[in-house]
Amino acid sequence: MQTNPGAASRMAMVGGSTVRIGELAGLGRPSEDRVVTTDRAVIVLDGVSTVTDDHPRGGWYADTLGSSIAELLTRETDMDLRQVLATAIGTVADNHALVPGTSPASTVAIVRRRANQIEAAVLGDSPVIVIGRDGSVHPLRDDRLAVLVDAQPQAREYHDLLRAGHGFGERHRHILKELRGFQGGVVNRPGGYWIAEGVPAAGLNAITASWPAADLAEIVIATDGISAGVEEYELYSWQELAHACREDGPHAVADAIDLAEREDPSGKLWPRYKVADDKTLVWWPLHRPTGGGR
Q1: How far apart are CA 241 and CA 72, in angstroms?
Q2: Domain ranges of the chain
Q3: Most buried among 144, 163, 213, 267, using CB within 10 Å?
Q4: C-alpha–C-alpha distance, residues 155 and 279, integer Å
């Protein structure tokens, strides 16, 4: 297996706090995850490429959409986050002649500090995890696609295939292609799931929440390459992951999850779509916890 150089680490000032960011590409290609910050907000995107290479890739789309969202958040400071998403999706689609169903796509997670509130919106499987000063955990996630996919017989088949030790072979790729075809029939429509792509209405269907900032200790924003380490591999609880971010940095968490995947290269222990996904993790401290939760 290829040698991984380790996750990159950087920081940004957001809402008066030092936000720490860890980023690690998956195997053999540049990451399509992106993090964009403004003076009051963090935007995390996980780009999804088209099947063919003759269209713009997911990383390009995540870059372009993230910049559009950041510009709107800076200019329209009171705009509802769902409207921000819808407007930005529409602007990018119009400016680049993107056609629904053939354009690249992206998950989006936005967290904004506005006055004494923390506001968040998620579209797709990049969750926001808010941890209270008392150690309580408040997840904001969009599971609509996962629920639909898990109900398909192919989902059970590829899990069984990997657990039996057949690895990420041709049959695995064929099953994922079938699941991708299923997803194409239910994307950005009522009763299906919503994702940033070429349909502005997707933004209006984002899942949102808000909390008093004074009640919160820290915020974690992750792409699914990180959340799998908690929700599928059970390497951390969300409190433990936040503590690891505080003590070692988000980049160290990304490296630890990546190492666990590399020690299960055939997916037998943890059946999944690919050997190692892109990993992006943002840790935003607001207050030190006063209770448990470590």
Answers
A1: 31
A2: 10-285
A3: 267
A4: 22
Locate 102 and state its tokens. Answer: 């053939």
Whether 34 and 44 have beta carbons less than 8 Å apart is answered as yes
Residue count (the chain): 294
CA atoms of 150 and 282, how far apart (whole Å): 28
Structure tokens at 54: 């003759």
Q: Which residue has the tokens 């680049």?
A: 96
Give the predicted TM-score (pTM) of the model.
0.94
In the sheet with 17-24, reading across from the earlier edge strand, the strands are 8-14, 17-24, 279-285, 216-222, 128-132, 137-140
Tokens of 197: 């792509």
The tens digit of pLDDT for each residue in 118-148 reads 999 999 999 999 999 999 999 999 999 999 9
CATH number of the domain at 10-285, please?
A: 3.60.40.10
Q: Which of 5-9, 88-92, 281-285 has the lowest mean pLDDT?
A: 5-9
Predicted confidence (pLDDT) per residue in 216-273, tens digit: 999 999 999 999 999 999 999 999 999 999 999 999 999 999 999 999 999 999 999 8
What is the DSSP track for 183-205? HHTTBTSTTSB--BSS-THHHHT
